[in-house]
């Protein structure tokens, strides 16, 4: 299927990819999730699971759609794979894959998987019948095959040497990667030392740092403008702190302030407090150019510390005079 197997040589999905695992309670009929592809900046995506008609059709309906269509939209081509996992034997997992092109006229792709009767039959092994909440597990994977947009980026291929970009190699998590030591040394002396030793183990990085986070961290170090979102920005902040990489911390702060990738105001405040990013709140307030802008930011005063309330009060005074 369309996903990275990090026990083998990783695949260079240079235009971007996405993978997620979700669970769907069998008593539900329709749920949706938001997601973002890091190489594409100006599209918010949605993924939906619908079993409303499944008793009649015996199909589970999946939808992939664009919640926000960019201006000057042309097309995006995705290879998509969906798996309903069988918990007892992966050979019995239900799988479907296909190639889909999203255009301005067609930005909602529907995929149907047969076998709903098997999925809800506890004897078939798609969910734990003894669990308090009975739910089946779904994995959806996407690989970007082509993009005709104005706001997308291409990743570096760290697995094949290009002398115009890279100047050394390093063994990271068991994989040989080619990188620019010059570029890295300008931004993180700690990471530069690891590169010089030519070997990076799991124990050298935070325990929650998986290979995909480290790979994308290197992409940003090398200048690729990746779009971060609420489920991973905390890991990038943690890794930037661990590796003493202030440019990456600043990169994360800008995306927090702009509310990228579904990052809420509360999550921005929590992250700013956790990592002592004391300039984030003033910069967020500075985005408001009038009282209407400040109101639109939707600060929940009842849940804020006095220090933040004082900053908001000061900004109100500035805008009102």
TrEMBL record:
It comes from the Eukaryota. Gene3D superfamilies: Potassium Channel Kv1.1, Chain A. Residues 165-258 form the BTB domain. InterPro entries: BTB-MATH_domain_protein, BTB/POZ_dom, SKP1/BTB/POZ_sf. It holds the Pfam family BTB. PANTHER family: BTB DOMAIN-CONTAINING PROTEIN, MEPRIN/TRAF-LIKE MATH FAMILY-C.ELEGANS. This is BTB domain-containing protein.
